[in-house]
Write a structure and sequence with these properties.
CATH class of the largest domain: Mainly Alpha
Structural class: mainly alpha
Strand content: under 5%
CATH topology of the largest domain: Arc Repressor Mutant, subunit A
CATH architecture of the largest domain: Orthogonal Bundle
CATH superfamily of the largest domain: Winged helix-like DNA-binding domain superfamily/Winged helix DNA-binding domain
Radius of gyration: 33 Å
Oligomer: single chain
Shape: elongated
Number of helices: 6
Largest sheet: none
Helix content: over 70%
Number of strands: 0
Number of domains: 2
Length: 134
Amino acid sequence: MTEVWQAVNRPGFDFTAGFWGFVEVVASRRCIDWLRSRKVRLPLSEDLLDSGRNPLQKTLDNERTNLAEKVLAELGPDCRKLILLRLREGCSYAKIARDVGKTEGALRVQMYRCIRAAQLLLGDSKANAVKGKF
């Protein structure tokens, strides 16, 4: 009620514009404040904390994934197949060599050339992204 009295004493307060409605709003808000103050607040358990990545990390991961997919799409089919088998599926060079009929050494050289081509495409992709083309 003190707040109502202070508001009424302020210069320019209009008694004719819904005085009782004003009193009801102030009283109900004070009751809500009183109920909230009585509520028991327990500290959060450490088990409830989010251990996941933060939004910035999620955004960066999504950008890296999108960029990697674009670069892979630009590579030739042999490079794309080799990179996917080796890096995504985790196949050994020996297994890939048996499947495609090449030596491990030849596959390692091919992988080096594929990664080099991907790096060049990545550099072009970054430059295009800055220019707004990608």
